[in-house]
Amino acid sequence: MKKILIIQNIHESGIEILKKNSDYEFEIIEDINSDELKKKIVDCDAISLRTAKLSGEILEMGKKIQIISRHGVGYDNIDLAVAKKNKITVAITATANAVAVAEHVMFMLLNIAKRKDMYDKNVKEGKFNERNKLPKTIELWGKNILIAGFGRIGQCLIKRCLGFEMNVFVYDPFVSSEKIESLGGKKVNDLKNAVKTADALSLHIPLNEETKNMINLDLLKTMKKNCIIINAARGGLINEIDLDKALNENLIFGAGLDVFESEPPMNNNPLLQNNKVFLSPHTAAFTEECMIRMAKETTQNIIDFFEKKLDKSKIVKL
Q1: What is the pTM of this model?
Q2: Which pLDDT belongs to residue 36?
């Protein structure tokens, strides 16, 4: 019997898959820093992992671990070097969250462009007749959006942007022009040059040494003053201090962040007090439907792995 350690609970629909299979037993651990985790990880064969950080030190204790199944698509919370050394397969829920995240990007983009909080507050405070004093909003129609990263999320997003009749440009060195054009976009090869003409920038790329702080003050200075930046990918892609400075100096129009370099963000993070940024607590994929899909795919990936039928597209290259 295979033992599965579920680090951070998942939707019951994923648990039900395991309950129906007598070849697996599981245990749910909520506290990543607990002594109980250190004890249980020793003899588990597989791990289901959400957003908790799985350090190399902890991972080394699990000598029997064969697979880590991520409840999501990011994997920077796993010590990949240790996983590779110990020949541990890392799988992601590659097909589960694209729609939810793409919708969240549009939700943020529209809220910022239409100054939702400001207009809502004005009415609720009885200042309806002062509407002419409010800053004007922005239309998405005819605007240029640059999608950086064109995996499943980016490909879901382009459909929604085209629905608003936006001009879509795509930066992704690993996707062909033919693929991008077939979906209604135009491929760009130079991100630094492409941001100069973008009215909106949406990030959908992994965090690594090459991409960390890729959106910094130097780059922000080259952007249009009406540009809106959305990050629903990984914190650390944007230098948060630089972003705060750019917003305060009106270098760009606004920003929407679902992810942060430190999660939760530190209390002294200036973006928490900046009214030009729209924030959400890493919940882009937190729709009811998506949580069900991710839970099912997370546990099914583990079963498929042991049955030697795990789709290769879901396996992270270490």
Answers
A1: 0.89
A2: 81
Closest CA to 77 of 8, 128, 159: 8
The residue segments making up the domain with residue 114 are: 98-279
Q: Which residues contact 136 (CB under 8 A, 6 or more apart)?
A: none
Cα separation, 48 vs 28, in Å, equals 9
Catalytic site residue from 204, 234, 240, 261 = 234
Domain count, the chain: 2
Residue 178 and residue 102 in one domain? yes
DSSP secondary structure letter of residue 273: G
Say how far apart CA 52 and CA 240 lie, in whole Å.
22
**Marked catalytic residue, from 36, 57, 263, 289:** 263
**Does residue 35 carry a pLDDT above 90?**
no
Q: What tokens appear for 22 in the block?
A: 């007598």
Task: Note the pLDDT tens digit of each residue in 101-137.
Answer: 999 999 999 999 999 999 999 999 999 999 999 999 9
234 is catalytic: yes
* Listed residue (101, 197, 108, 207) closest to 154, CA to CA: 101
Catalytic residue of the set 71, 115, 282, 293:
282
Which strand ranges, in their side-by-side order, compose the sheet holding 228-231?
186-188, 167-171, 144-148, 200-203, 228-231, 254-257, 277-279
Residue 18's CATH number = 3.40.50.720
